[in-house]
Sequence to fold (567 residues):
Amino acid sequence: MIRIIRHLVLFLAFALPFNGTAQTDSVRTLYKITKEITADSAVVVTAHPLATKVGLDILRKGGNAVDAAVAVHFALAVVYPQAGNIGGGGFMIYRDKLGNASCLDFREKAPSAAFEKMYQDSMGRVLSKKSTYGALAAGVPGAVDGMWEAHKKYGKLKWGELVMPSVELAEKGFQITPNEAEGLNEQRIFFVKNSSLTPAFVNMEGWKPGDWLIQKDLAETLRRVAGEGRDGFYSGATAKLILREMEKKKGIISEEDLKNYKSVWRKPLEFDWKDLHVITMPPPSSGGIILRQLLAMAGDLKKYGFHSAEAVHLVVEAERRAYADRSVHMADPDFYKVPVQMLTNPEYLKTRMADFNPDTVSSSANLTAGAIKESEETTHFSIVDAEGNAVSITTTLNDSYGSRTVVGGAGFILNNEMDDFSAKPGVANMYGAIGGKANAIEANKRPLSSMTPTIVTRTNKTWMVLGTPGGTTIPTSVFQVLVNVAEFGQTLPEAVQAKRFHHQWKPDHISYETDCFSQEVEATLTRKGHLMNPRESIGRVEAIIRLANGKWQGVADERGDDCAGGY
Ligand code: GLY
Fold:
């Protein structure tokens, strides 16, 4: 009975804030999930309905977009443990109501004891499990420092007020969705194996949709963060628990690493494209550069038509060239001089496409360097507030549930971001993936990312806020949503929910969602020489657009439990 009452309270509490014009409401078993919303003042779109609610509550209390983003980030760490995090890192693009743009890099860093060959055996063979599972796979987390920095610079409400909703969610628990139950059950054995203590994520009888996930240890950690800010994570009791986990599970993050972690304010990558201005993520993400390259090399698509063979062929050929560049030229700019000017120069991009043949594929083998293997489990959220400030944040543990190492007594999952480095530059690892020297492991370096949080303006006003998870598919998904609206004239809901495709040079095939192409288009692409590789869903875009009537429209991807809210 108590459970039923809690359920109802949760449903009602959740349903109330959504006063905008919801066009398509799909009432799921547990939560009211809104995929599209039109609102006069403010919009929040995240991967989980409870995180969206937390963000909206903060906005209603008078918080700004950054306050809401901080609160959402912590809420996702509780209700969306597969990618939401305090043990990982991410990137923020921010544009204030006056048009000032900034960019915060809170990506994880390699521990100071990390070294180039740390995932190789004495014969030079790559030990890929070591960079994906367990404490040794973890980079120094940046999430809490990132939120602290963002709040210090732009926040309006008190820090503690932004963290407390998550303390409550962790302490009182919440009901897990079918997706979450499935994810946690799949990972049970890995959590047990890679953590020193059995974490709250493990239910030996198996999770069922609607079960309550209560995270007491995480609640205590978040309470320390709420009270002490950054220090509540990087020193004191939380730091001690992280170090104990490192000792027990043979990780290498040290006390100094935690103390010294610092997010970096970077200059966003900005460029004009047609009548739009794009503000996006520079290195250590490859995302912004690839987005710029694709728009320049393949942005004139209107004349071909949406998902026509000509359009897809052009985009794929541009992608082939962009991802070849990625593997050689992109890395942490604090360690490697990324030639951003060259890679985004219109003349250079023209020469890249000089050998484009509309009738046939070009050869990936004849382009230099190697393939990329990168996890797709990340999460994105987009927020605009009533004053017109906009936040676009993509954050990650890397793999789904990161390293599957939960810090004993602290209740949060550590990332496995070290796997985004090249474990052995220039040589294929056991999965055939080859990485460049630029992205080799070095102490205190950030691994190359694909995350592409983006804000697009038109006539100097924020027009679109978007981003997605999806590893290497992130830049191509952001590109597709943008051109679906700007070139093909789709509405934002159409653009987000449209089927997507992806090519990353190597492996040399077009990955695409089922039913993405007509049989005729598929046959034409095959005739041109493309190898076709159907796969499961690509990305989960959370986007906001300013409509012609001045209202905001928020769209959450149908591919998950994602939810839009606004007022
Ligand atoms: N770990 C996924 C990314 O950073 O792109």
